[in-house]
Write a structure and sequence with these properties.
By secondary structure, the chain is of the alpha/beta class. It has two domains: about 150 residues, Rossmann fold (3-Layer(aba) Sandwich); about 100 residues, Hypothetical Protein, Haloacid Dehalogenase-like Hydrolase, Chain: A, domain 2 (2-Layer Sandwich). Helices cover about 30% and strands about 20% of the residues. The protein contains nine helices and twelve strands. Strand 5 and strand 6 form a beta hairpin. The longest helix is centred in the middle third of the chain and has 14 residues.
Length: about 280
């Protein structure tokens, strides 16, 4: 797909923001300067949305509520597209047979797997990485049977050490988008997001822009990871963080500072300059 050029009026009307490595650094917090910049964008009439691989509950929901408590946000790598004001959803469920295949593989390989709905998650793993990840998400760690999660399941996720990634990516994942991502708070591990084919951050940004009546050429997306590339490829204002992975940097029209140096503040300033 050819990326749209910014429109002649040059005005960014919607800013979509990745979370880990973009809003959140190694400390797991948003810096005060970033919150101030986002407030300036809201005051200028710019729509804001987070676009995260994380679920739409726990810590991530709290972030989204502060960014825009009555707006659309993307969670679960695009599988959950939720309107926090109305409770509306444009989420995309995994096929039951796909979920069964993943559960069987996790049990056979003794590999940490998480399953997610719009509202909750489940893991059977009692591993340390599963426990730490629950804490990072602000959720209670309570392993239980996968079958206890009420359907629909919208996303699955493998929790891996880096040296396991190549083998897992080589496995068949029929009917699924397979998207690895990193998080600065867990540098020794990689998350492999599994969503329905055709569902990713790009499809979610498209849905949010359509809901707001904003053309894609007037959307800015700010991100740092491989799972951000579908959205960076789609919008008129693709912005990569200074700490971004090479595939994200390659797609960016602009590169700002890293997450620890308030790169998002620079991106917001760029967006507001288009509206001056």
């Amino acid at each position: 797909m050819t990326r749209p050029a910014p429109s002649r009026d040059g005005a960014v009307a919607l800013i979509c923001l990745d979370v880990d490595g973009t809003l959140l650094g190694a400390a797991g917090t948003v810096r005060d300067g970033v919150w101030d910049a986002l407030a300036r964008a809201r005051d200028a009439g710019v729509q804001l949305a987070i676009c995260s691989g994380r679920p739409g509950f726990g810590v991530t929901r709290d972030l989204a509520l502060r960014v825009d408590a009555a707006g659309w946000h993307c969670f679960q790598n695009g599988a959950s597209v939720l309107h926090l004001g109305s409770g509306g959803s444009q989420s995309s469920a995994l096929a039951p047979e796909t979920v069964s295949m993943l559960v069987a593989r996790a049990r056979a390989c003794d590999r940490p797997l998480e399953l997610y709905s719009d509202d909750e998650y489940v893991t059977e793993s009692v591993s340390e990485i599963a426990r730490v990840h629950a804490s990072l998400l602000g959720l209670a760690f309570a392993p239980r049977a996968f079958e206890s999660l009420p359907p629909p399941v919208v996303r699955a996720q493998w929790l891996l050490a880096h040296d396991e990634l190549a083998a897992v990516l080589a496995e068949p994942h029929p009917g699924l988008e397979v998207s690895p991502s990193l998080g600065p708070a867990l540098p020794d591990h990689v998350f492999v997001n599994l969503t329905r084919t055709g569902v990713d951050k790009g499809s979610a940004v498209q849905a949010i822009a359509t809901a707001y009546g904003v053309a894609l050429e007037n959307v800015m997306y700010v991100g740092d990871g491989l799972n951000d590339t579908p959205a960076l490829r789609l919008v008129g204002w693709p912005v990569a963080m200074g700490n971004a992975e090479p595939p994200a940097l390659a797609l960016a029209r602009h590169v700002v500072g890293n997450v620890e140096d308030d790169g998002v503040v620079q991106a917001v300033a760029m967006a507001l300059a288009t509206r001056a």
